[in-house]
Amino acid sequence: EARRVGRPGGVIALITYAPTEVDAAVDPVVARFQYETLGPHWPPERRHVWAGYSTLPLPFARIPAPDLAIEAQWPGRDFLGYVSSWSGVQALQASGGDAAWSAFAEELEAVWPLDEVRTIRWPLTLLMGRLGE
Questions:
Q1: pLDDT category of residue 99 using cuts at 50, 70 and 90
Q2: pLDDT at 54 exceeding the cut of 90
């Protein structure tokens, strides 16, 4: 499709973000929940995101990507709201996993009070290539 709609010499870029980074207290709590609790509830395609798109073939000359990240300042309450929007959480809750969600929310609040603002960082992964001439 990129060849069909792109121009010779054009660039295709696939962009995703890695799991969030907050700090040494929060990151292990989120990682356990994200990978262990939610593991079976993620769609299979999620593996490509976790692999930073390294598992996807790119039939174009690769272009090196810069190191980029998104950063935000959020209170714990907003971060918890963000996590609740994940498709894995939605699938967990649809399967009756409300207790697991509540346990995570309590564990997170123990290390990140709801009103405390912290910096969240989402490292970006770019898979880029140049369309042939």
A1: very high
A2: no
**What CA–CA distances, in Å, run from 101 to 14, 20, 62?**
31, 18, 40
pLDDT, average across residues 94-110: 96
pLDDT beyond 70 at 33: yes
Query: 3-state secondary structure string, 46-63?
Result: HHHHHCCCCCCCCCCEEE
- Burial status of residue 95 (CB atoms within 10 A of its CB: 0-12, 13-18, 19 or more): exposed
CB 29 within 8 A of CB 107: yes
Query: Tell me, what's the pLDDT at 133?
Result: 67
Contact between 49 and 16 under an 8 Å Cβ cutoff? The reply is yes
Q: Taking a C-beta distance cutoff of 8 angstroms, is the pair 130, 9 a contact? A: yes
Q: Which two tokens stand for residue 63?
A: 């272009």
Provide the phi-psi class of 45: left if phi over 0, else alpha when psi is between -120 and 50, else beta: alpha
Euclidean distance between CA atoms 130 and 12, whole angstroms = 6
What pTM did the predictor assign? 0.85
